[in-house]
Amino acid sequence: MTTESIPDLAPTTAPSPEDRSYDYDLLVIGSGPGGQKAAIAAAKLGRRVCVVERKHMVGGVCVNTGTIPSKTLREAVMYLTGMAQRDVYGASYRVKADITVQDLLARTQHVIGREVEVVRAQLLRNHVDLVSGTARFVDPHTVQVTGDSGAGDALITAATFVIATGTSPARPAAVEFGPRVVDSDGVIELEKVPSSMVVAGAGVIGIEYASMFAALGTRVTVVDKRPALLEFCDPEVVESLKFHLRDLAVSFRLGEEVASVEANANGTVTTLSSGKRIPAETVMYSAGRQGQTASLDLAAAGLEADSRGRIEVGHHYRTKVPHIYAVGDVIGFPALAATSMDQGRIAAYDAFGEPVRDLTALQPIGIYTIPEISYCGRTEAELTADSVPFETGVSRYRELARGQIVGDSYGMLKLLVHSDTKELLGVHLFGTGATDLVHIGQAIMGCGGTVDYLVDTVINYPTLSEAYKVAALDVTNKLRAVERFGA
Ligand SMILES: Cc1cc2nc3c(=O)[nH]c(=O)nc-3n(C[C@H](O)[C@H](O)[C@H](O)COP(=O)(O)OP(=O)(O)OC[C@H]3O[C@@H](n4cnc5c(N)ncnc54)[C@H](O)[C@@H]3O)c2cc1C
Ligand SMILES: NC(=O)c1ccc[n+]([C@@H]2O[C@H](COP(=O)([O-])OP(=O)(O)OC[C@H]3O[C@@H](n4cnc5c(N)ncnc54)[C@H](O)[C@@H]3O)[C@@H](O)[C@H]2O)c1
């Protein structure tokens, strides 16, 4: 939550590096992407930095329960099911016939372990102290750290603070969670791949896990109270995703609310507000997240959180208490790992008077469904609402040599181009490599480039990047046709 109401204070309120009146120049609470980058940025400025994190959570939600486990699980699913190769070797192609949770977890645990080591090593070599435990404010310059091992509490003082405590899954009071009813933390600890599953809440988390389980052969029913899926994305792309998921036996119950979930030893029954009852072996709840601020005693620091546990910040992520910053998921939208990292870096620079630029408005979105989705810039609906004249250019992977080689016949790239200036306004991708490929379009848009750049640029062959060239020529042909027909 960023707001204009918090004053943009400058210059820094932090003491000089020589001032030793506090234990640290910066104390960071939480070691997820936001906290890590804040700590390292401050350490690079020669500051004395400490990070407080729970023993089993080094690397944050990102490494332990969120981004990294889910994306590694997806990779394991893609490999073991042979999903990406079925266009080439046939619909019955599998790398392994009976995929167990152990098969999937082997890869996930390996990657998590390595990532935790990377985080520890980076903090260590930058001389950042990592203190194990849960932090709670005692006053605006002091936290009490309760050790995980039951060791006594420690009081640590600091001149400045970055709160990067992230979020945890929101758990409705009416739903009893257990072995059969899990949230996104519990789904990576299931004992077996369920034969059927209800996914309650089709945000990004819900739809990514729905894709993975559907690929594993689970019969998935997706329920969401919103009438449309991923409504911020290009509707054509979302339609393609739904087509693919339906092909994997996913059912959609959109515009429907989960009223209650009953679980027993045999399975679960999810009741919707419309009265429908859906039986399934497992239910995964992914109906939003809650800021992890309850344990912080924010009032002792002069702060408060909203009803969803989020902290309000102003320019450069400063809270209303000038020496305390908040970054990452705990401040709300967009709640992404990459954004959190940059917010952490910017907050640390601001705290210590280092000149820093704001993030550019052009933010990429990457959704790791099967197949994956990515976009950057404007959507057709936004441009139409703003009366911006535009033309589209489309490239289908099935017409690219690399698309045939990798066996992706469904992928597509769509460019949105200003009809008069030829400026690139948006890029939307669906299919193999979408989350990487989007950055070509982002770079062109970031530099104010036009579609002519793509027309005049030679692109390696055979690559999926060639989709940009094909789509650019498509737009240009359409624009030329308007001129020709108009004349
Ligand atoms: C299932 C899932 C999949 C995701 N996939 C993606 C993705 O593909 N791409 C993407 O960009 N983002 C993804 N995200 C979001 C991404 O994980 C977050 O945006 C990112 O982790 C937020 O970073 P953060 O800095 O806010 O800290 P977090 O990673 O949220 O970590 C916060 C840390 O603070 C610690 N903490 C909390 N309170 C205290 C306290 N009082 N004392 C000490 N420590 C404390 C916690 O233990 C935790 O380790 C996903 C999230 C989930 C849940
Ligand atoms: N690839 C990525 O970038 C990625 C992946 C996963 C998560 N994330 C981040 O994590 C955040 C949280 O994701 P999320 O999916 O948990 O939250 P969300 O708030 O985006 O989605 C929750 C969904 O649950 C629905 N819902 C809530 N209560 C319901 C009910 N009773 N019945 C039916 N539907 C209900 C809502 O309508 C909403 O669509 C995202 O906003 C995103 O920033 C990002």
TrEMBL record:
**Would I find Oxidoreductase among this entry's keywords?**
yes
- This protein's gene is called sthA
Q: Where is the FAD/NAD(P)-binding domain?
A: 24-344
For this UniProt record, give its keywords in alphabetical order, as a comma-separated list: Cytoplasm, FAD, Flavoprotein, NAD, NADP, Oxidoreductase
Look up keyword Disulfide bond and say if it applies: no
Q: Superkingdom of the source?
A: Bacteria
Q: Any idea of its EC number?
A: 1.6.1.1
Which residue ranges does the record assign to the Pyridine nucleotide-disulphide oxidoreductase dimerisation domain? 364-471
Instruction: Tell me the protein family, please.
Output: Belongs to the class-I pyridine nucleotide-disulfide oxidoreductase family.
Role summary: Conversion of NADPH, generated by peripheral catabolic pathways, to NADH, which can enter the respiratory chain for energy generation.
Cofactor field? FAD
What protein name is recorded for this chain? NAD(P)(+) transhydrogenase (Si-specific)
Q: Where primarily located?
A: cytoplasm
Q: Where in the cell is it found?
A: Cytoplasm
What InterPro entries has UniProt attached to this entry? Class-I_Pyr_Nuc-Dis_Oxidored, FAD/NAD-bd_sf, FAD/NAD-binding_dom, FAD/NAD-linked_Rdtase_dimer_sf, Pyr_nuc-diS_OxRdtase, Pyr_nucl-diS_OxRdtase_dimer
Q: Which GO MF term does the entry hold, naming one?
A: NAD(P)+ transhydrogenase (Si-specific) activity
